[in-house]
Structure formats: C-alpha cells, structure tokens
Amino acid sequence: MLTFILRRLGGMALTMVCLTLVVFFMVNLEPNLTKLALSQMDMRASHADQERWLERNGYRQPFLIRYGQWIGVVKKQPIISPTTGQPTARFSFCNDPAEPRYSGILQGDFGCSTKFRTSVSTKLFPALAATGTLMMWVLIVMVPVSLLIGILAGMREGSRTDRTLSVISIASTATPEYVSGVIFTVVFASWLGWLNGSAASASQGITFYNFTLPVMTLAIYGIGYIARMTRASMVEVMTQQYIRTARLKGLSFGGVVVKHALRNALIAPFTVIMLQFPWLLTGVVVVETMFRYQGFGYTLVEAASNNDIDLLLGCSLVSVFVVLLTQLISDVGYAYLNPRIRVQ
Predict the structure, then answer these.
(1) How many CA atoms lie within 13 A of 296 on its CB side?
(2) Please, which pLDDT band fits residue 82 given cuts at 50, 70 and 90?
(3) Which of 61, 7, 9, 57 is nearest to 324 (CA)?
(4) What are phi and psi of 224, to 5 degrees?
(5) Residue 76 CB contacts under 8 Å (≥ 6 apart), including other chains
(6) Residue 173 φ/ψ, nearest 5 degrees
(7) Cβ-proximal residues to 336 (8 Å cutoff; 6+ apart), any chain
(8) Per-residue confidence at 156, pLDDT binned at 50, 70, 90?
C-alpha cells in the first residue's frame, strides 16, 4: 500500500506540472497580456507603451523562465526603475522582490492580484475557507439524504417506493445548478419570503436565511446522482447468494439489510462521494456567482473576467491539487473498504 501511495504521489506531482504548464501557457497568451497592460495603464495607451510596460514588468522574458519563476525554481529579477535606475518591485501593493531571489509557489508566494491590488494568497485563502464552509454544509446535507434515498430505493427493487424515489433522483440530477438556483430563489425568496437573505452577507456571519439557498442549490444535483449509484449498488448486493442464505437462516429483512447488505453496498458510493469534490469546485463557480457568495468560485470568475493572471493561476493550481488529492483518497479508501482488492 505504501508503494502504491508513493507511486500515486509521484504521478500527482507530474500531472500537476503538466497541467499547470498548459494553464500557464494559456493565460499568458498575447491577447491576455495586452488586456493586462491596458488594465494597468490608460486604455488609450499606444502599442509601444504597452510593450514597454510588459517588458519592464518581466512579461517578455522567455516562457520557461517565467514559468520557473512562478514555480520558484528560477530567481525573480527586480525591475529597474527608469527614473532612479534602482531595482524596485513590480507592484507596490505586493511583496515582489526588490532583489534577485527565489520567490514562487514553492516558497509560498503565489504572486500579485492586479484586480484586488493585493497578494494572491491574501485573497485566495480566505475565499477557499469560505468555499470550504459552504462545501462542508453541502456534504452534511447531501450525503445522508442521498444514501437514505438510495438504500430505500434499492432494498425492494421495482416497488412503488423504488419507482418514486428513482423519478425524484433522476429529476434532481437532470436539473443544473443555474436552473434549480433560480427556481429556489423564486419560490422561497420571492413568493414565500422565507429565505430572502443575501449570500453576500454570509462573510459577516452565516445564518439560516443567507446560507440555505446556496446549500440547497449545490446539494440537489449531487443528491440525485449519489442516490442513483447507491440504489444500483444496493440492488446488486441484495441479489447475492449470502443475502439469500441469511434470509433462509431466519434473519429479519431489516437485519439482513443492516448487518450484511449495507456495508458492502456502500463501497461503490464511497468512491462517488469522494469524486463529488471536483464537481463541487465547478458547481460553486455557478452558485457563488449567482448568489454573490464571496468564495473560491466567485474569486475565480472575478480573476478570469479581469484578466488577473496570477490569481487565475493560483485558482487553477488549487483546483488541480484538490482533484488529484480526492482521487488519491478515493483509491486508498476503496482499497481499504473492499478486502477483495489487492494493490500490487
């Protein structure tokens, strides 16, 4: 198992390097650099002025040099002031080095946010904490409800309960977040007036009124998907020979389900639940923008809309890390839960 984990960690590191290299190349294309220069200068700046700004701030260095500086394996060079001739930082609102030194991801320096005029870490990590709180409550709601629906549906395949719960699960899975969010807002906020608090105020304090709609919108899609997978796993387990043997021994139906079927039926849904984390990262982009919740998704949209290169790179790095980490946890947990699996 240790060899398997080490091999997967090596694969994670290689994957992160490849993906971040692609993302770094895409966000540093010429149109993006031009927009960045214009956003930091007068919108009527000439092409020559734009070139001077990009050259002065290091954006015209070779691609691999810039990527190495962002990672932290190549020293960042200070900017020479054209007026004083002395080395100075690129941006006065950030901690860019005024002397040659290693200052990148490996050193904990994620760069400067040109949109929010602060360091990326100052903006990114509070947004991640806010999204982590949202995701925690989504999982608290989504996992128990979906498992309960899936188990009840799969216990008696083909029954009226199974058909009803299956229809509900399919309907929730087929409804994207931007549709369910609008429906919940119209019904619970506009018509009933129950949940009329803005999610933007959740940064000052989470309440039932300002946090329920984003949680419901994110959870409703995942509930249907996990419930369908749990039902399929439960139906398969209930047809196994050892279940029939337990019934023939005189055990009650509920006892067979709890003592024999449930544990084996939850192996496959565990993997599905762990894989919901990457989906939640994409889901929060829609939901946080819709409800103006100041989290990771909202920050990502702001970075992309304003061509904030360093912040966009930081968000991409976090997304890649979360996806790879949850996949690793899913594989290891699946191997531990299923004794028939032998990791070579």
Answers:
(1) 23
(2) low
(3) 9
(4) -65, -40
(5) 58, 69, 96, 97, 100, 101, 102, 103, 104
(6) -70, -30
(7) none
(8) confident
For the chain, the three-class secondary structure string (H helix, E strand, C coil) is CHHHHHHHHHHHHHHHHHHHHHHHHHHCCHHHHHHHHHHHCCCCCCHHHHHHHHHHCCCCCCHHHHHHHHHCCCCECCEECCCCCCEECCCCCCCCCCCCECCCHHHCCCCEECCCCEEHHHHHHHHHHHHHHHHHHHHHHHHHHHHHHHHHHHHCCCCHHHHHHHHHHHHHHCCCHHHHHHHHHHHHHHHCCCCCCCHHHHHCCCCHHHHHHHHHHHHHHHHHHHHHHHHHHHHHHHCCHHHHHHHHCCCCHHHHHHHHHHHHHCHHHHHHHHCHHHHHHHHHHHHHHHHCCCCHHHHHHHHHHCCCHHHHHHHHHHHHHHHHHHHHHHHHHHHHHCCCCCCC
- Residue 245 confidence (pLDDT) above 70: yes
User: What is the pLDDT, as a whole number, of residue 274?
Assistant: 74
What local confidence, expressed as pLDDT, does residue 176 receive? 81
274-313 tens-digit pLDDT: 777 777 777 788 888 888 888 888 888 888 888 888 888 8
The share of the chain scoring above pLDDT 90, in percent, equals: 0
Sorted by where each begins, the domain ranges of the chain are 2-113, 122-337
Q: Are 250 and 285 in contact (CB under 8 A)?
A: no
Helices 2-27, 63-71: inter-axial angle, 10-degree rounding: 130
* Whole-angstrom distance, CA of residue 264 vs CA of residue 259: 10
- What CATH architecture does domain 122-337 belong to? Orthogonal Bundle (1.10)
- Measured between alpha carbons, how far is 237 from 344 in angstroms, rounded to an integer? 26
Terminal alpha carbon distance of the chain? 8
**Which residue has better confidence, 210 or 66?**
66
Residue reference for tokens 């860019």: 96
Per-residue pLDDT, 207: 65
CB-hemisphere CA count at 13 Å for 281?
A: 17
Q: Which of 307, 313, 317, 314 lies closest to 30, judged by CA? A: 307
